[in-house]
Amino acid sequence: MDFQIPDIDSLLKSPPRGEEDIEENQDSPLSGPYEAIAKKTAGALHRIRATLAKAKVNKNNRKGVLDPTISLIAALNEQAAEIATLKAKVSLLETETSKVTDLKAQMAYLKAENEKLKQEDTTKSTEIASLTEQNVLLKAENTMLAQRIAQPTPSSNGHQQEDKKKMTFANALKKQLPKINKKKKFVSLVYPKDDNTSSEETKSTLYSSIAPSKLNIGVKNVKKVQNGGVAVERSSEEQLKKIMNEINSNPTLQGKMEARTPVKKNPKVIVYDVEDSMSKEIFLETFCFQNKVDREKIEAAFNLKSKSQGKCHWVLQTDPTSFRQIMRSKKVFLEWARLSVREFLRPTKCYKCNRFGHISTKCPNQEACPRCGEEGHKRDDCSNDAKCINCSEAAQKFGRNIPSNHETSSQDCESYYRELKALRERTNYA
Question: Which intervals of the chain form a coiled coil (predicted)?
Answer without folding.
Answer: 76-120
